[in-house]
């Protein structure tokens, strides 16, 4: 756990924010980034060139499992949801989450611009045909991610939804199969990491390429999505999880400690949890509160690495300074545990998702709140947004004019053609009025 004090002067504070982001975002580790980029590029090129043969090699190398091409794909039509080894309570929890996520996805689905009159400019939305939703299954089987990706694709109207996930010797986790069935998934492709992303991005002898890849992953998956962008669309850059908590003297110290630990639990050891607070008492007690709670949790070397190197406590002078640090850091999640969360929320302009008040812990958003938990990380929330139905749809502009409307616009169109030295463009408009003139 690393403790920092924000400076008092505005110029020093701006520099502090810049330095903190450079430190936590790895902006100074160019050698590591270059190595990662080269490793990812080599795997992608291998899959492009050698197809299924490369996938077989990488499944053995990275996931220690021997697969044949006929095992790459699980057809969900062959899966009987009722026979899966799940309790009624587990199935009920999945259905509850599905219901809430579906409702939110429907509310946020883009609406077409209404076409009125004989002349109009409108826009329509068309679902993609085939998409891949990446579901991490390394340290933990992220059942909720199946819902938080595939449900949005299903509500968008995508017909062919596949889940892309790492193969396991024991097979796909039953709860993931059930969630996929509920969410309308057509198939599961048992290929993970970079080689799985490459397979669906470019296609192989067995794997049909997709139009878009959505979902979170580790640094390698995120880099792979970045490199295949263009061959396919991607949702965003979503790597290891992170949280920032903004707290004042009203915050419950035990809640804060529990919420910090919830992010340290994800398993890569690269997660980050940042507490920015104006409370001196919280700054003093947070380490002991957190370590006491840590002792009650199962052993985890990855969590301990996060506690040592990835948890930051920043003591600020004002709540406004806390908000400024948040906007520079642009966290995946931000919790506001203050007397007036609404006041703080209005100042937040860069974050994947905002959880307000002590009754909205971040994990409720991970599981059943309704909006997608697939969110930008690593500072990408400055330019990206969380996953929505719009990520699985194309928007197409539509224009329809009658003679009068074109006549009203003719002057400006012909002048633009002259300014841009495109006479054929201008003629395309004027020729329609030659007979009348």
Strand order of the largest sheet: 1-11-10-9-12-13
Distance between the termini: 80 Å
Elements, N to C (H/E): EHHHEHEEHEHEHEHEEHEHHEHEHEHEHH
* CATH fold name of the largest domain: Rossmann fold
- Helix amount: 40-55%
Which residues form runs of ≥5 with pLDDT under 50?
Answer: none
Mind telling me the CATH superfamily name of the largest domain? Nitrogenase molybdenum iron protein domain
Mean pLDDT: 93
In this structure, how is the largest beta sheet organized? 6 strands, parallel
Strand content: 15-25%
Please tally the helical runs, counting DSSP H or I stretches of 4 or more residues.
Answer: 16
CATH architecture of the largest domain: 3-Layer(aba) Sandwich
Class per helix and strand makeup: alpha/beta
- Number of DSSP strand runs: 14
Q: Briefly, what CATH class of the largest domain?
A: Alpha Beta
| Cα-based radius of gyration, to the nearest Å | 25 Å
Q: What is the domain tally?
A: 3
Q: What general form does the structure show?
A: globular
Short description:
The chain is an alpha/beta fold and 437 residues long. The chain has helices spanning 10-24, 30-50, 52-63, 88-107, 143-156, 174-183, 193-202, 219-228, 253-264, 280-294, 301-309, 319-329, 341-345, 362-367, 403-419, 423-430, and strands at residues 2-5, 73-75, 120-127, 130-134, 160-165, 187-190, 212-214, 233-234, 242-247, 272-277, 311-315, 333-337, 353-356, 393-400.
């Amino acid at each position: 756990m690393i403790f920092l004090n924000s400076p008092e002067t505005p110029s020093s504070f701006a520099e502090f924010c810049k330095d903190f982001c450079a430190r936590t975002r790895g902006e100074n580790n160019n050698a590591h980034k270059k190595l990662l980029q080269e490793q990812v590029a080599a795997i992608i090129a291998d899959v492009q060139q050698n197809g299924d043969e490369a996938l077989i090699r990488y499944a053995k190398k990275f996931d220690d499992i021997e697969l044949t091409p006929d095992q790459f794909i699980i057809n969900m039509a062959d899966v009987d949801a009722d026979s899966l080894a799940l309790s009624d309570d587990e199935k009920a929890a999945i259905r509850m989450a599905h219901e809430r996520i579906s409702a939110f996805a429907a509310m946020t689905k883009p609406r077409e611009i209404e076409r009125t009159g004989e002349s109009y400019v409108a826009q329509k939305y068309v679902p993609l045909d085939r998409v891949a939703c990446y579901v991490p299954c390394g340290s933990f089987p992220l059942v909720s991610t199946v819902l938080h990706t595939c449900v949005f694709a299903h509500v968008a109207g995508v017909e062919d939804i596949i889940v892309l996930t790492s193969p396991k010797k024991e097979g796909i986790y039953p709860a993931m199969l059930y969630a996929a069935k509920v969410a309308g998934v057509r198939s599961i492709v048992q290929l993970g990491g970079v080689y799985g992303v490459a397979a669906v991005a470019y296609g192989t002898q067995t794997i049909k390429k997709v139009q878009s890849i959505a979902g979170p992953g580790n640094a390698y998956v995120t880099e792979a999505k970045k490199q295949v962008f263009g061959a396919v669309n991607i949702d965003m850059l979503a790597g290891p999880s992170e949280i920032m908590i903004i707290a004042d003297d009203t915050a419950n110290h035990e809640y804060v400690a529990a919420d910090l630990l919830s992010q340290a639990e994800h398993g890569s050891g690269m997660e980050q949890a940042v507490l920015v607070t104006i409370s001196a008492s919280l700054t003093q007690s947070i380490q002991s509160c957190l370590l006491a709670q840590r002792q009650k949790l199962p052993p985890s070397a990855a969590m301990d690495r996060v506690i040592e190197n990835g948890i930051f406590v920043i003591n600020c002078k004002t709540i406004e300074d806390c908000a400024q640090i948040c906007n520079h850091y642009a966290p995946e999640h931000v919790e506001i545990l203050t007397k007036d969360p609404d006041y703080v929320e209005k100042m937040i302009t860069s974050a994947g998702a905002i959880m307000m008040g002590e009754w909205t812990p971040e994990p409720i958003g991970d599981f059943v709140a309704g909006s997608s938990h697939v969110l930008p990380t690593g500072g990408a929330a400055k330019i990206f947004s969380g996953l929505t139905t719009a990520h699985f749809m194309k928007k197409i502009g539509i224009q329809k004019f009658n003679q009068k409307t074109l006549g009203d616009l003719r002057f400006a169109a012909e002048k633009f053609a002259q300014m841009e030295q495109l006479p054929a463009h201008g003629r395309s408009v004027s020729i329609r009025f030659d007979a009348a003139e």
